[in-house]
């Protein structure tokens, strides 16, 4: 079986490489703003499915797609659209605990599965100056919730509860376990 990663995210590509999987990458073209859902879990699953549907699997292919959002107090945070937006998001998350949800869709011609995983992340209390300095790194702009735990955003994080890799964009070990049901096996390519 040929695995196709339906994602333009360099993080997701890196994570699958880390798992030793062989795959091709294709970028789905979706309007993420057009989708609504009752809560963050439903939203990320819907978006993951939508991304997968843009690249239907051919015979012998398995298509993997995903979406990540941050939620706090019923509010859903996606990627910031501006510096002000990033500052507003980080101020909201500052000193509190939020959840990072990643939805994953896996499809072959014969079957499909969709699931979501949530990780709790607690931020330190930062000053406005520290948040502004973090935004100056440029890191927030392509990331849900306006931070990257895998980069300098690590300094905002006091603790996490759950899968770290889920925060970065894919709940890696769960994904690999699910892929095995589709005939995709890790460690086979070195
Ligand atoms: C919270 C957090 C998010 N992110 C990233 C993961 C996702 O790539 C991104 C959320 O945007 P997504 O829309 O999930 O993904 P994407 O647009 O980067 O890629 P594609 O839709 O093509 O698959 O935020 C981090 O890299 N680190 C973090 O700590």
TrEMBL record:
Question: What does the entry give for GO biological process?
Answer: nucleotide metabolic process
The cross-references to InterPro entries, in alphabetical order and at most eight, read: ITPase-like_fam (IPR029001), Maf-like (IPR003697)
Q: Which reaction does it catalyse?
A: UTP + H2O = UMP + diphosphate + H(+); dTTP + H2O = dTMP + diphosphate + H(+)
Q: What class of enzyme is it?
A: hydrolase
Q: Gene3D superfamilies, alphabetically?
A: 3.90.950.10
Its biological purpose: Nucleoside triphosphate pyrophosphatase that hydrolyzes dTTP and UTP. May have a dual role in cell division arrest and in preventing the incorporation of modified nucleotides into cellular nucleic acids.
Family as reported in the entry's similarity comment: Belongs to the Maf family. YhdE subfamily.
The entry's protein name is: dTTP/UTP pyrophosphatase
